[in-house]
What does this fold into?
Amino acid sequence: MKELLHKEEKKVEYLELIYDLIFVYIIGRNNSLLHHTSGGRIQFEMLLAYVLCTLAVIQIWNFSAYYINIYGRNGLREHVFLFTNMFLLYFIAEGTSEHWQTHHTQYHIAWGLILLNIALQYAIELKNQQRSSWNIRIIIVLVTEAVLVFAMIPIYKLTGIDFSYVPIVFGMIAASIPANKGKSFTVDFAHLSERAMLYVVFTFGEMVIAIAGYFQGEFSFNSVYFALMAFLIVVGLFLSYGTFYDKIVDREQQTSGLLYMFLHVFIIFGLNNITTSLEFMRDEQVQLLPKLTFLIVSFVIYYLFLFLALRFAKLSCKPPVSFYLKMAALALSFVALMVLFREMMYVNIALSAVYVFALYAVIYRIGKKNSPQR
It folds into this structure.
């Protein structure tokens, strides 16, 4: 335990940032799936493909980041494994398209090989007796999920039904089991939380690019108004997460980090959804109810899991149970107002901006409890 308390903080290596660039590319590919609408509505098949592809890719990143946190040495072997995964991820990106059915086999082969690649890295580390039980557990999870992924290929060919959500759900549940059995080991949480923050920043990068469409076209009050509201929403979302990371989360705590990463799967997923929602807001071809529903659900997902992540807050920043009741009431009020003014897009987007900054003010007050003057 003394070694854990006094060990040098692990730094994010340039190799990790290069590896993350492929995920930036895939974020855009995933979001593009929802732009294939029919009759003004999001195609259910495309929505399902979007959810599956987004969660699968975030999960891959999660497994990789966790391995690097525990065993990463920035050595030659690590370079080979990561660049191999980058190469395979290009096949996943290519298979993330409107005609995903034609790429189903290559997508799942690449996906399964990536999981086996990560499992092999853990297997090599089995000589580390201190964490052998964890290694064996995660190897079993990764290999089993890879087998399930490969099994989806013949099942899809025989039935025409894609059950790819099965390995994703299995991986999420199975990988989180150790966290429910106590802290059998700890990770470098400062490094792990920084890796999660960087992925969130990359996701915001895609959002910044997405709202560029609001600044196109005729220069008028209407265009400037919607551009300003969209920009304020992105700023508010970013400030909320930035305050959470900089002021609230306790990066020095001893934890396995599994739950923190699990929550970030849905934080990032929610941000991806908000990015697409903002694009839908200015798309007149998309019917009002679908895009309004998608926007509301996206905000709820993001803030729900961001507030759940407050369990990793510093002691001075941990909110009481009443806080969550107040946030639930605020969310319900937001939903009610959005539905009430559903026909007025000017009001909808303004309400979204107000809601985002209202929650930022709440998060800012929580973070202020940890200020030096206190």
In short: Strands lie at 37-38, 41-42. The chain is about 75% helix and 0% strand. The first helix runs from residue 2 to 6. Confidence is low (pLDDT under 50) at residues 1-6, 179-183.
